[in-house]
Design goal:
Blueprint (H helix, E strand, L loop, with lengths): L2 E6 L12 E6 L2 E5 L6 H8 L7 E5 L5 H4 L1 H15 L6 E6 L3 H11 L2 H4 L6 E6 L4 E4 L2 E7 L8 E6 L5 E4 L10 H4 L4 E5 L7 H4 L9 H10 L4 E5 L9 H9 L6 E3 L6 E3 L1
Parallel strand pairs: 3-4, 4-5, 5-6, 10-11, 11-12, 12-13
Antiparallel strand pairs: 1-2, 1-14, 2-3, 7-8, 8-9, 9-10
Helix pairs in contact: 3-4
Length: 267
Amino acid sequence: MEQLYVFGTGNAAATHYYNTCFAIRDGEKIFMVDTGGGNGILRILEDMKIRYEQIHDIFITHEHTDHLLGVVWLVRFIATRMLNGTYDGELNIYCHDGLVSTIDTFCRLTLQGKFYKMIGDRIHLIPVRDGETRHILDYDVTFFDIHSTKARQFGFTTTLKNGKRLTCAGDEPYNTACAPYVEGSDWLLHEAFCLYGERERFKPYEKHHSTVKDACELAEQLHIGSLILWHTEDKSAGRRKELYLAEGTQYYHGNLYVPDDREIIEL
């Protein structure tokens, strides 16, 4: 059965949580989505017993540091294994076409030449278009533009082997232009910057983010079977799950998840 490996759940400013990123795991295969903001991802992979040799597909949603910079570390460590003969096959990094040069530049400026040379050889930066479908692992993954107001950003939707549809809506509020991809999903992965009750404290709308109430009302309206909330503040660390579930279940009657870092969710 597929599993969702939750690597991080925090927003860009969080220090008690790692930045939001995750993977779909199918047996020994991993499809990783975003990489967080630094080498903390290496410790998380180790803690969750994921080997670099299992990672052959990574999708980067957008250019913000809390989603992007960890990929440089993964390129370095996977390239090392390619060079010493312990990594079989290739690494594919998917992103929208405007992000290819950004990832390439970060790697060129920060990695040793022997590692950077693997890009274009066995490490591939693959641009995807709005509405394009790629076959990744055993899934047909359709990427879509979430119509971000800040930086161009893509989400994706796919159907799992059990027939359920899983959709990642990015880290900004839902745009109705994404309805064909989001509406009726069995699983929706959505940001919730803070509680609605604490909106004056955290000012999510100024940052173009949602509250727990907003995300849950949306999921109810779009007939979502299971909703996962993350990309949150961290001032409620230790009580976040309790507080977010208490607010969210008032507005959403499906299966509501507020995972912690390093949780595994059965899909």
